[in-house]
Records
---
Amino acid sequence: MRYEFHPEALAEYEEAARYYAGCQEGLDLRFIASVEAAVRQVAAAPERWRLLEQDVRRCLTKVFPYAILYTIEPDYVLVIAVMHCHREPGYWRRRVAGSVEPDAAPNGGPATLLGNSGVTEGPPSVS
């Protein structure tokens, strides 16, 4: 199944990668690989992980204290948060359907897909 990132989820993913880039050389790449592996697992078997709340499911990343929070939409998986597990739980709730901001696209608008691979704009760029 293809997947898309909520724009705020993609932004927090990029922010975390930049943070790890500043901690140790190559740590950002290991973080990106960990998140991408978790997202690929979710896309391959989205119902594998338990419901966290309403229709939101959670898949933990390996090594890093992050979780991929997502919903299963009719024809794709929507990643609504790349959440640090030790900070501000519940901040992502406003991203779930029913709490869309005025003039926003449904589900926060899809991220740009590259071809039919299901990959959105690739991993975050770190500079």
---
Amino acid sequence: MPRRSSVLLINEPPLQALPSLACLVGINGAIILQQMHYWLQVSEHRIEGYTWIYNSYNAWAKQFKWLKPHAIQWHIRALEKSGYLISRQFKYKTRNNTKWYRIDYEKLDAAYREQIDYQKTDSDSQETDGDGEKTDSHSTKYGQSLKLNLEQTTQETTQETITEDIQYIWQETLVHLKEKVSPANFKTWLALTVPTSFDGTLFLVSAKSEFAAEHLNKTMSSLIERVLTGIVGGQVKFKCHSGR
């Protein structure tokens, strides 16, 4: 008889996340937040009126086996910045720097309501374009709204993001690249590069000259993208430009 299953299909407790949540925080962020919600439901740690959980990045990595600890750290920091995840240190509880976490359910629900506010009824969801063809106005307007929200958020937090998350990701990337290329190549092409932006998909870096930027884009982009993808935990494209 033909096989009716595979070792890669669900035969163990799955990690799940709603598509609506993934639209807000990305698929990895959604899975991490959902798993934290699960542990919060069974946690008995009540501190200052809230239920909390704690774990190290290495411990979380055992649950999210496709993500490395530094990638998990990046996603958790992104959830903290968004306000959906709240972290604290209660040294009187653990006597060390252990981070405790809880979810801001009110903020999460507010973000979801804002998301669905863009949706319209089926009768209003289609408009006619100049050629008389019907178009999905909901998808277009919702995408435009998300883009505007992203641009506004980016403008408000660009400096903070560059000095924290993007710097961290690129420094980690350089550490790995230093092990994969010769010292001469690293010093010539990579050592003086500076991260400039990252939108979750495209990672932009500045090189000291147009010649160096062209070299990185043509000969090293595939390697850099593999390293970035491993660190972030999701597919990342790389592009280098010249100047600061």
